[in-house]
Write a structure and sequence with these properties.
Blueprint: E1 15-24, H1 26-35, H2 40-54, E2 66-75, E3 89-92, E4 101-108, E5 115-124, E6 130-132, H3 139-146, H4 150-158, E7 164-168, H5 173-186, E8 191-196, H6 199-207, E9 213-216, H7 222-233, E10 238-243, H8 251-256, E11 258-266, H9 273-282, E12 288-291, H10 299-309, H11 311-321
Parallel strand pairs: 7-8, 7-10, 8-9, 10-11, 11-12
Antiparallel strand pairs: 1-2, 1-5, 2-3, 3-6, 4-5
Helix pairs in contact: 3-11, 4-5, 4-10
Length: 322
């Protein structure tokens, strides 16, 4: 739906949430930031206008949303989870693109962070996924990680021992978590290649030893990416490619570096299904293309466990998001 009803009266199988923070999808936040020239007040106005028009935080350009953290205010009598209590602090694990939301005030917005503190309310449906926030991890750190929990969970499923894996956009939030999980799954004889546009983000990957090879390059420059990756792995290409970028037109870079009968997982919400599907056909690539699904069974626990296992990642995320 382009617009949903955001009057905050719940049915008996729903919950009402006092919202604390929105974690806006990276592709969406990048688009908002660029269209507002990084002006915080203009960004606030744009977010408020989207929610006023649509009843939800769904970027009309990217179509993507994000997620939120808040405190349970009211629980319908027939809501299925009887362990949930009023006052519990939760993170929603379904997209803001389908979550009824009302914003009364934007309390804090920093163009450099996709976490926006607000005063407002939201409704979670009976089918809506959520996680009660853990006590051993700060809430904004949990929110940052859970926002992209589907990505490392899919890496855990898709990457096998000794695989050659390429992670495009590996220096961002989802990319770092994917790198950790890919290194874990491939083992000592596998290979994890990171492509990162930002020199600073690329250096993070090197410093944290989260890849075997790091390439600093623009993922929209298809032939440059192809030549740099094949210089490392040969013409055969990669077994698995994970695309985490937040800009459009990186589909063909992902496809060309994938071996025949290999697999590309497009976690990025900036992905064009048309470009990916027709592009693979156009270059004669028999590969599996998977469109990002933010949900995978156990994804919340797996992602939070990475923060518990990796001190460097936790320290970096605390620096960036807490």
């Amino acid at each position: 739906a382009i617009r949903i009803d955001n009057s905050m009266e719940i049915y008996d199988n729903e919950i009402l949430i006092d919202v604390i923070t929105l974690n806006i999808d990276s592709a969406s936040y990048t688009q908002i930031k660029e269209s507002c020239n990084k002006d915080a007040e203009k960004m606030k106005d744009m977010i408020l206008s989207i929610v006023k028009e649509r009843g939800k935080m769904q970027n009309p350009v990217t179509g993507s949303g994000g997620m939120l953290i808040g405190i349970v205010k009211q629980i319908g009598d027939n809501f299925p989870d009887k362990t949930l209590r009023v006052g519990d602090k939760i993170a929603t694990l379904v997209s803001l693109s389908l979550t009824p939301l009302r914003i009364d005030e934007i309390k804090k917005l920093d163009p450099s962070s996709d976490q926006v503190d607000i005063k407002g309310e939201a409704i979670l449906f009976e089918s809506g996924l959520y996680a009660v926030l853990p006590t051993d991890i700060p809430e904004k750190l949990s929110l940052a990680a859970l926002d992209v929990a589907g990505a490392p969970a899919q890496v855990e499923r898709l990457v096998k021992k000794n695989d050659i894996v390429c992670i495009i956009g590996g220096g961002g939030k989802s990319g770092i978590l994917c790198c950790y999980e890919a290194m874990k799954q491939t083992g000592k004889d596998g290979k994890v290649i990171v492509i990162e546009y930002s020199k600073e983000n690329a250096q993070r990957i090197i410093d944290m030893n989260l890849a075997t090879d790091v390439i600093i390059a623009d993922a929209t420059n298809v032939m440059d990416i192809y030549s740099k990756v094949t210089a490392i792995v040969g013409e055969k290409g990669c077994d698995v490619v994970i695309n985490n970028v937040n800009v459009p037109s990186t589909e063909m870079s992902s496809i060309l570096i994938t071996k025949d009968e290999g697999l590309v997982y497009f976690f990025s919400m900036a992905t064009s299904f048309t470009k990916a599907a027709l592009g693979a056909e156009g270059v004669g690539k028999d590969i599996t293309l998977i469109m990002g699904n933010g949900y995978a069974k156990g994804h919340a626990n797996l992602t939070l466990q990475i923060l518990r296992e990796s001190k460097p990642i936790r320290e970096l995320f605390e620096k960036l998001y807490v």
